[in-house]
Amino acid sequence: MPYYSEAVPILIAVDCVIFGFDKEGLKLLLFKRKIEPFKNEWSVIGSFIKPEESVKAAAVRVLEEYTGLSDIFMDSLGCYGEVNRDSGARVISQAFFALIRLGEEEFQKVETHQARWFDFDSIPTLMLDHNEMISDALIKLHRKARYEPIGFELLPKKFTIPQLRLLYEAIYQRTLDRRNFRKKILSMNILDKRDEKDKSGSKRGAFLYQFNQEGYEEMKEKGI
Q1: Helix (H, G, I), strand (E, B), or coil: what is residue 164?
Q2: Going by DSSP bridges, is the β-strand pair 42-43/91-101 parallel, antiparallel, or unpaired?
Q3: Which residues contact 82 (CB under 8 A, 6 or more apart)?
Q4: pLDDT digits 0-9 by tens, 63-108
Q5: DSSP character at residue 126
Q6: Pairing state between β 91-101 and 11-21
Q7: What is the per-residue DSSP string for 61-124?
Q8: Which residues, listed in sequence order, are joined to residue 93 by a DSSP beta bridge?
């Protein structure tokens, strides 16, 4: 590097805060670090960026390695670069957060990497500044869920209004009024009602809905 010979090398990593939803609650994917320092401590999923990778490509690689999925919602979270954040070396981390719809397959895949899905009331203390990353990711998730339909990334293609309400209760960590939620979400015209019903919860069942992307785009244009 003739032009940068006086520069001191700094390591760059990506860390991914991965949220999952399994119809019961919001979960967080963590794994036990395999190398020193901090070996065997719980951590969000991360990796150093390879010389031939862009930052985004490294994050996509990390997600695919640990979840087996490549086409999922992911957004930039922020840069974490306190001078003494890592005792192993001078490391700057670009963090992302991702949303995954959980099924039995997703639970099984992460086990091969010594990873585990945690409920939010049982998240352990993590290495470095990873607890801070999670707090920041939750704040960003709350903000985006108010104005963008990112919550639908965590649901099956067809879902009931109660399932949608439970998801947003999990995101905001509080109980939402059933009637008000139903009235508000239907008034937005971003759901298509199906003729099918989900009868897993009762004999009467609940009608299934699908997200309407065109309706959402129209709502955005109107500034609703």
Answers
A1: helix
A2: unpaired
A3: 129
A4: 888 877 777 888 999 999 999 988 889 999 999 999 888 765 666 6
A5: -
A6: parallel
A7: HHHHHHHS--S-EEEEEEEE--TTS-TTS-EEEEEEEEEEE--HHHHHHHHTTTEEEEEGGGPP
A8: 13, 80
Give the Å distances, CA to CA, from 86 to 29, 43, 137, 173. Answer: 21, 13, 20, 31
**Which positions of the chain have pLDDT values less than 70?**
1, 23, 103-113, 201-203, 219-224
Residue 104's alpha-carbon distances to 15, 70, 114, 208, 218, in angstroms, are: 24, 17, 16, 22, 35
Could you tell me if 14 and 46 are in contact, meaning their C-beta atoms sit under 8 angstroms apart? yes
Residues in the chain: 224
- Residue 165 DSSP class: H
Contact 95, 78 (CB under 8 A): yes
